Amino acid sequence: MKAQQYEAPDSIDKAVALLAAAKGQARVLAGGTDLLIQMRVGRLSADTIVDIKCIAELRKISREDGGFKIGAAVSGAEADEHAELVAHWPGVVEGWELIGSTQIQGRATLAGNLCNASPAADGVPALIAAGAQVTIVGPNGSRKVPVEAIPTGPGRNSLAKGEFVTYFHLPKRPPHSSDAYLRLIPRTEMDIAVVGCAVNLTLDAGGTCTAASVALGAVAPTVVKVPDGAKALIGTKLDAAALDKLAAAASAACKPIDDKRGTVVYRTKIAGVLARRAALIAYERARKRA
Amino acid sequence: MSKHHVTATINGEPTEFLCETSQSLLDVLRDELELTGSKEGCTSGDCGACSVMLDGRLVCSCLVLGVEASGRTVDTIEGMAQGADLHPLQRHFLEGAALQCGICTPGFLIAARALLERTPDPTETEIRYWLAGNLCRCTGYDKIVRAVMDAAAEMRGAR
Ligand SMILES: Cc1cc2nc3c(=O)[nH]c(=O)nc-3n(C[C@H](O)[C@H](O)[C@H](O)COP(=O)(O)OP(=O)(O)OC[C@H]3O[C@@H](n4cnc5c(N)ncnc54)[C@H](O)[C@@H]3O)c2cc1C
Ligand code: FES
Ligand code: FES
Fold first, then answer.
1. Would you call A106 and B63 a contact, using CB atoms and an 8 Å cutoff?
2. Which end of chain A has the smaller Cβ count within 10 Å, N or C?
3. A111 vs A29, A47, A70, A114, A141, CA distance in Å?
């Protein structure tokens, strides 16, 4: 593993300055659960590592405009202990929690999961279904973009040189809304998703769905949204016909690969199964939330 | 590039060491500080043999840079027994034959202690999920899970 310089700035401004001034390849270090492995096996190199975990504001989860603002250096274990976040966005936290073991949870961040840009990243589909945004800072100031604007393909993201993610923003929740994330892996823990599916729902007081969003992971180079599946749920109480339409739309949205974890046929079928199950979980949760 | 001069609290003791950026915390513990209780099984976060507590959080020390320990608290297996008094988990691992070659044992003990600190009365399922990031190629896990349950019961009784 080759890395010469290590910096641990205590402010966002200092991190921006360090990344802008770095000669050669500079990389942000969050939990290191992707970066350090990829450097060790020689897939990535870095002349400078900028550790963002000493920036206090990036280690916090706070309320913002009725929603949440999550710092880019917050670990999965910290998110799991934030009862308010779990209550509002159980699906987002559940995707994050599925990343690795207890040990990996002690370090893994959502920003690392997103920027590493694995098609199977478990933290990402629920963020996209949630309509989450990220703040990006860099030499030209800061900007806010939807989460889905970051990954552009396996291992690639849209960040310009010197830019990094500082915050995730989760919107305010209407009453009777909730979300869920499910993935299928060949074992019960510690594996890479064959398919992942997030569903985010809002219901009216009578239990009829008024808004929906569905996102699939691991079935294409980046997360795919399933607008036809979402549309099939709106105006229903998730009866059998609506769920059949959702499952068909989810399968139709897949452009998967064949690999040792699953064939194209299997992934396509499973996408429908998971969409149906995740929708029912989100529905039950939404009904219970006043 | 000069080495980093790092000060950290390791097993309660203020400790100084020098390390390169590329050295992991596991490398530092084993090669610089001669704390060889933490083991290296995979260096990729999969086996948990290198488990330590970093500022009270369970982590794989192979996926932490040594220099990241600066100003932080690290607790390793070497700090688990109090002198000659073994921790109840250590005793139950021995009594219950929850180890064979022993390579995985320090990691299991550190991880199990972290579980019992937050969940004094875990179910078998909770134990198995919590320890899913610790691999053992010898025991088949049942004896490990039972040793953790027995230690938990003893520790609850002792309160
Ligand atoms: C044993 C093991 C099991 C795993 N299991 C899973 C799993 O089940 N599901 C899953 O999805 N992933 C899994 N992973 C992968 C990994 O843990 C996750 O992707 C994790 O969320 C990465 O976050 P991190 O903070 O460790 O990122 P890092 O390793 O610190 O960073 C990852 C990449 O993102 C960049 N980066 C980090 N933060 C920022 C930022 N704020 N702005 C811009 N760029 C940034 C880094 O430069 C690097 O290129 C596993 C890894 C291991 C070792
Ligand atoms: S050596 Fe660190 S997890 Fe295997
Ligand atoms: S006792 Fe040998 S690996 Fe667990």
1. no
2. C
3. 10, 21, 10, 5, 19
pTM: 0.96
DSSP code for A259: B
Verify that A36 and A104 share a domain, yes or no.
no
Contact at CB, A102 and B65, closer than 8 angstroms: no
Report the domain count for chain B.
Answer: 2
Of A2, A33, A102, Cβ closest to residue B58: A102
pLDDT class for B6, splitting at 50, 70, 90? Answer: very high
Predicted ipTM? 0.96
Could you give the percent of chain B with pLDDT greater than 90? 97
How many angstroms is it from B141 CA to the middle of ligand 1? 28
CA–CA distance, B2 with A64 (Å, rounded to integer)? 43
* Same domain as B92, residue B64: no
The model's pLDDT over A225-237, given as tens digits with 9 standing for 90+, comes to 999 999 999 999 9
Residues A131 and A61 in one domain: yes
| Interatomic CA distance for residues A261 and B59, integer angstroms | 27
Q: Specify the number of domains making up chain A.
A: 3
Coil, helix or strand at residue B52 = strand
Q: What confidence score (pLDDT) does residue B1 get?
A: 60
Distance A117 CA to ligand 1 centre (A): 9
For residues B38 and B70, state if they share a domain: yes
Q: Of B14, B48, B79, which residue constitutes the final position of a domain?
A: B79
φ, ψ at A56 (rounded to 5°): -55, -45
Same-domain check for residues B93 and B72: no
Contact indicator for A96, A122 with CB cutoff of 8 Å:
yes
The verdict on B10 and B31 lying in the same domain is yes
The candidate with the shortest Cα–Cα distance to A125, out of A260, A231, A254, is: A254
Q: For residue A282, what is the domain's CATH number?
A: 3.30.390.50
pLDDT digits (tens, 9 = 90+) for A100-113: 999 999 999 999 99
Contact B65 A32 (CB under 8 A): yes
* Helix count and strand count (H, E) for chain A: 11, 14
pLDDT band at A8 (very low <50, low <70, confident <90, very high): very high
Q: Residue A259's pLDDT band (boundaries 50, 70, 90)?
A: confident
Instruction: For residue B45, give the nearest of A51, A53, A104 by CB distance.
Output: A104
